[in-house]
Write a structure and sequence with these properties.
Radius of gyration: 14 Å
CATH class: Alpha Beta
CATH superfamily: Divalent-metal-dependent TIM barrel enzymes
Oligomer: single chain
CATH architecture: Alpha-Beta Barrel
Distance between the termini: 36 Å
Order of helices and strands: EHEHEHEHE
Strand content: 15-25%
C-alpha cells in the first residue's frame, strides 16, 4: 500500500478519526497520507498541517499535499510555502499534472523544488477545462 487518501484539512478537523485511519493504514504498510488544504485561513492551515504531520510521524507516514485548484490550497507554490512554514520533516507534495495545469502551473515550476519533497506523482484523467453541465 502506497498511500491513504484523502484527508481534508479544514477549519475543524477530527484528529482522533485521522489517528485511527493513519494507524490502520500503517498496518497495511502505507507510507504516505494524501492531504488537501480545504481551509481559507492560511495561518490556521499551517497549524493544522503541522499537527497532521505530528500525528502521522509515529506511524512512519508522511503527509503529502495534493494541491488542487478546487480548494483554497490551489497551487504548487502554495504547497511549497505550506511545507516551509510548517517545518516538518515528514511533509511532501504529490503532483497531479492535471491539477498543475488547471492551477496555471507548468512542468518547469517543479525544477526548483527539492526532489525529496516530490516522492511520487498521481495521474488522473479529466478535461483540462471542466465542462459545465
Amino acid at each position: 500500500m502506497l498511500d491513504l487518501f484523502t484527508f481534508y484539512l479544514q477549519a475543524a478537523c477530527d484528529f482522533e478519526h485521522f489517528t485511527r485511519a493513519l494507524a490502520l493504514g500503517a498496518e497495511f504498510g502505507a507510507r504516505f497520507a494524501l492531504v488537501q488544504g480545504d481551509d481559507p485561513d492560511p495561518v490556521r492551515l499551517v497549524d493544522t498541517f503541522a499537527r497532521f504531520c505530528d500525528v502521522a510521524a509515529p506511524f512512519g507516514i508522511s503527509a503529502v499535499i495534493e494541491f488542487n485548484p478546487a480548494r483554497p490550497l490551489a497551487t504548487c507554490k502554495q504547497a511549497v510555502q505550506l511545507i516551509e512554514r510548517a517545518g516538518k520533516a515528514n511533509a511532501a507534495i504529490c503532483v497531479d499534472p492535471l491539477h498543475l495545469a488547471r492551477s496555471g502551473g507548468v512542468p518547469d515550476d517543479l525544477r526548483g523544488i527539492d526532489p525529496r519533497l516530490l516522492p511520487y506523482a498521481q495521474f488522473s484523467d479529466g478535461r483540462l477545462h471542466p465542462v459545465a453541465r
